[in-house]
Amino acid sequence: MKRLSRYRRHKAAAPLLLIIALLGIGTTFNIVSAAVKQTPSALERSVLIEEGKAIFLRGCSSCHGLNLEGGAIAPSLIGVGAASVDFQVGTGRMPMADMSTQAARKEPVYSEEEVAALAAYVASLAPGPAIPTDEDLNYERDGNLAEGGVLFRNNCAMCHNFAGQGGALTQGKYAPTLMGVEPKHIYEALITGPQSMPVFSDKTLTPEEKLSVIKWIKAAEAEPNLGGATMGRVGPVTEGLLVWVLGLGLLIAVAVWLTARAR
């Protein structure tokens, strides 16, 4: 204690304490400022929700009900979460004119800001899967390519084709191609299970395994077509059989035509 008292009376003690205090205040201020910038204020979120509500009432309520309760031709949106809205509207699947057909990916009707507002409004009424952040989607860092290939073949290939090119399902439905789909939308589809697709919860596929699947899909997308036309990448045997059948059919047609002409 005597030694501390002696240092406390030193000439440099006061300036040193002042510098330490200023450094502490500055560091705390920077941390708090960064947190405030990343987290929207209550007022901003309230404005976003109100904007989303207006968009919903104008463009979605005729099918999904005024209070998201659903109707005869459209399901309830209570508890679907922001991720489901971002996937369906952000990929152009919603809104759709004919609810009796399968929703297809197309050019979005709403802008990114309008999609975010719609998602915020739906999420404000009941809890559900949230939109993944950029940190959540760092598949290059957190994904494993080999593991992703195994997981895709075990869980996805039976519908989407072993190369992610899509495929036919029962009752006129189909699994769409995964080529050209944003990583965010692939992740959202995994956690929300749109249309005929099952939900892959974190107990079924961990977040890291989901990123591995995305990494494999993106690697398959970037793979060049060294053999020319891929025909869905169904494999050399099937592709060769198709060419063989078409070739034989063409030869038979020519033979029949020549025979008919000879008469």
Spell out the key features of this protein.
mainly alpha, Cytochrome Bc1 Complex, Chain D, domain 2, 57% helix, extended
Describe this protein's structure:
This protein has 263 residues and is an all-alpha fold. The protein contains 12 helices and 2 strands. Among the domains are: 42-125, Orthogonal Bundle (Cytochrome Bc1 Complex, Chain D, domain 2); 139-222, Orthogonal Bundle (Cytochrome Bc1 Complex, Chain D, domain 2). The protein has a two-stranded antiparallel ribbon with strand order 1-2. A hairpin with a 5-residue loop joins strand 1 and strand 2 (174-175).
Tell me briefly what this model is.
The protein is mostly helical. It has helices spanning 2-8, 13-38, 42-59, 61-64, 81-90, 112-125, 139-142, 145-155, 157-160, 183-192, 207-222, 236-262, and strands spanning 167-168, 174-175.
Q: Topology of this structure?
A:
Elements: H1 2-8, H2 13-38, H3 42-59, H4 61-64, H5 81-90, H6 112-125, H7 139-142, H8 145-155, H9 157-160, E1 167-168, E2 174-175, H10 183-192, H11 207-222, H12 236-262
